[in-house]
Amino acid sequence: MTEQIGFMQGRLCERVDGKIQAFPWRDWKNEFPAASAIGLHMMEWTLDHDQLYDNPLLTPSGQAEIRALCDRYSVATPSLTGDCFMQAPFWNADDQTAKELQNDFLAIVGACHSVGIRMLVVPLVDNGRLDTRAQEDALVDFLLSQEGYLQSCGVSVIFESDFVPSELARFISRLPSGKFGINYDIGNSAALGFQPKDEFAAYGHRITNVHVKDRVLGGTTVALGTGNAQFEIVFAELARIGYRGNFILQTARAADDSHAQTLRSYRDMTYAWMAQFGLLRSAA
Questions:
Q1: CA 183, 234, 258: angle at the middle one, nearest 5?
Q2: What one-character-per-residue DSSP string does 87-147 give?
Q3: pLDDT of residue 2 exceeding 70
Q4: pTM of the full structure
Q5: Which residues contact 265 (CB under 8 A, 6 or more apart)?
Q6: pLDDT by residue (tens digit) across 6-44?
Q7: Residue 75 — left, alpha, or beta (φ > 0 → left; ψ -120 to 50 → alpha)?
Q8: 5-276 homologous superfamily
Q9: Residue 116: which region, alpha, beta or left (left: phi > 0; alpha: psi -120 to 50)?
Q10: Nearest 10 degrees: CA dihedral of 268, 269, 272, 278?
Q11: N or C, which end of the chain has less CB nearby within 10 Å?
């Protein structure tokens, strides 16, 4: 099974407070052997603003444990989804709070470096949405000022956004491609009614990570293949731009708690689409 398919942390254990996604405080260690047992060897870390500095990623002992678990179970953590940035965005905070949140951002970048996380996903949606040009400027100016630090840590920043394709293309053009890119979320685009060909024409060359999920138009996450996501068109477009990056299963949760079985089936569906359109790294 391809090493390009991973899963969002928390998908192989019970929900936290009924949420579809949150850091699994009780079960985070157990997900490493659970993933290895079903042939998944890549996990995207999740990070919430609540208890941020208690997260194992932000403590020296936790970082050592993460590295040890990765080695023991052959599970890589190449990327992180920073829900913390959406929950407490520095780009729309007052000056003092913004400075504190920027320091949090830099601490997270340093923590990513310590455990080998290379991509930091910043969701510009919901509470983190960019509503004004001033907010956008605050985000862009800060990131450009930290480009050297990102380079030294080997961490790139990639964005999810609910901007229409032309606006997302305009936004990402303000940031150099070396350390900044786009996380393409198949389900979110489906829920917003965007057309994949329009999206890929606008900013396909800046996509560096893909979240695999399905959503209904204007609605919630559902099982793969039961919503409005146009998977065959999306995978064909990914092939057209020569994408060879990762595919992270940010899929619907199992209603009957059969987490491993459900995730395995989604992995197999994703692998079939990748093989159909020649997206495997070993493919010619």
A1: 75
A2: HS-GGGS-HHHHHHHHHHHHHHHHHHHHHT--EEEEEESGGG---SHHHHHHHHHHHHHTH
A3: no
A4: 0.96
A5: none
A6: 999 999 998 877 777 889 999 999 999 999 999 999 999
A7: beta
A8: Divalent-metal-dependent TIM barrel enzymes (3.20.20.150)
A9: left
A10: -110
A11: C
The identity of residue 131, as a single letter, is D
Q: How far apart are CA 46 and CA 83, in angstroms?
A: 7
Q: Are strands 214-215 and 221-222 parallel, antiparallel or unpaired?
A: antiparallel
Interatomic CA distance for residues 131 and 50, integer angstroms: 24
Query: Residue 120: beta bridge partners?
Result: 80, 157
Rg of the chain on CA atoms, in Å: 18
Reduced to 3 states, what is the DSSP secondary structure of residue 190? helix
pLDDT digits (tens, 9 = 90+) for 106-159: 999 999 999 999 999 999 999 999 999 999 999 999 999 999 999 999 999 999
CB 210 within 8 A of CB 186: yes
DSSP assignment letter at 58: G
Distances (CA, A) of 42 to 97, 107, 226, 237: 34, 23, 25, 24
Longest dimension (CA), the chain: 52
- Summarize pLDDT for 164-198 with one digit per residue, the tens: 999 999 999 999 998 999 999 999 999 999 999 99
